[in-house]
Input
Amino acid sequence: MKTVLGVHGIGMISVCGRGIESHADAYNHTQSADSSSPIRVCRVADEILKDRVTLKKMRRADRFSKMSALAARDAIDLAGLRVSDGGIRLGIVVATAFGPHRATFEFLDEILDFGDAGVSPTLFSHSVHNAAAAYIAIMLGSRGPACTVTDFQYPFHAGLMTAAVWLHEQRCSHVLVGYTEESSTPMDRILAQRHRGQPSHEPVLFNFSPYASKMFSEGSVFLVVTRPDQGGVALDLDRFKTGNDRISGLGSLWAAFKDGGLHLPQH
Amino acid sequence: MSSTPVFITGLGAVSAAGTGCAATLESFRNGNGNPCTAAREETPIAKPVFTVGDPAAIANAEEMRTLRLATLAVDEALSDARFRKRPSDIRVGVCLGTTVACQLNDIDFYRELRASGQASAVVFDRYLRGNLSAAVAERYGFCGPTLTITNACSSGTDAIGMALAWLRAGLCEAAIAGGADELSRIPMAGFNALGIMSATACAPFDRDRQGLNLGEGAGILLLETDAGVARRDAPAVLTCEGYGTFGDAHHLTAPREDGSGLEAAIRGALTTAGCAPDDIGFINAHGTATATNDAIEGTVLARVFGTDCVLSATKGYTGHTLGAAGGLEAVFTALGLREGWIPASAGYKNRDTSIPVAPVTRMTNVTGRYALSTSLAFGGNNSALVLGRQP
Output
């Protein structure tokens, strides 16, 4: 099986803003940490998540789903993909390490505050890991396969491999594959405890990892990928080693996307 | 698409129906489900649940209960296949589905965190070590691909479908596939809030069904290519033939009323298996016993297979085990093919005339080379597997 994908579109929501181009300047700007957080955490600006056009059917959706949907929408648009076209069989893969834990913790808050019988069904349904994939499918009207995968070490790579397998078996013509992590005050505390004594002020995209040692942040990135013989910028999964703290190679991917060549960093 | 044959060489099942396939078959012969009246954990939601009745086998505070359930079933599947524990000559993948094990939803841990700002490292470490596929691969020394799928109630089915694709793509020669989930207070509260839990023992497809009962367990298949089977002289009676999955793109928790997503998933599974509806000897239905699921699923099954299709609904023995359901029901489907019979549908008594199909009411002999297992899930996932038996 070939582990090379053709990349046709990239969408990204990050602490640097919306769009992969904002990511390119990530390391040149100082990010402001969230003052409500017990540690230095860079969060996606709430304003970004108020795109009422893209998210018009997601007003009650959780933060994880909104970030995912915006990045997915941008990747689809950049690829110029019309999901309703007859020849398009789109698959959706959402990868994550921790999933929508903000909704999970809010649900636990409700149990503690109001009792087991007093919880919100909406909050429960958003705490399920595959809610984001469902929202994306609904937003795009995509009836193809959708899969949410979890891994604590290489979640994005797991997602990309899932996309490669689907393309190989021709289950899909295109796969919208993404990686999302969110922050929350409880998880910030947990990870801060784990990382005590390892201060760093350098923000790293999606460095929301139990294994990483730099500042925590959140965001979402999605790619539209096909088999390499269908064009796009070639992405060799054997070289694109992505831990959940290491997808900064996307900057290079974006540069290659614009320049027509690809020079991925080795991690 | 490759049509590389994929064999099911080992089966493992742990649920309220029994710890192990032999105990499960005994429960099936008896024909009665037996839900408990109280949850394993303290909860004011006094709804029936199905718990694994072998506490000694799964007691281990050092690791997640879901992982213990999975390990029990993996042990059985490997033993069933006479598979050595640390094979150096075979690349073994692990693809498992779960829902509860993905979430950091330990209520005592969170209560402490909320109150003191300090979190128990023990609980968090247990969570990090509990990624199901990674943990199983590490425990058994498997070095093939690993993937944990969390697609709500179709997780187990989708994991088997992905493992099938791995084997056909040559990514590994064998794969542990299925699902596992523990009973937890959190989904108990959530499903109760959604108003779809029954106050009595669940009755899939029954006229008077009131909703689902939650359960726990693990269902595991050991899948191997023909090369692996030939090399190990493994049992090779059962096969994994096809997988289909299709989305509703409709609603977060409700299925599309026309059932078109499920129908497309079933037809996709049949196509990849290279068989027609008439080739299917029996169907293990998702059959949650909720009003909506059973009505839509029954209508779709009648549309594809006819109103006289042979239907098995086994959640009356296990409850709805969420991420484990697809794995367990794939094992039950395989057992039906192997044994030549399927159990009475526990809980079912009265025909719902609005549903054009009905499950079997007694232990029923089955023929045919193929059988189908279906799963529907939150998020609009619909998935189906076609399993087979060698002629």
Notes: DSSP finds eight helices and seven strands in chain A. The first strand of chain A starts at residue 4 and ends at 14.
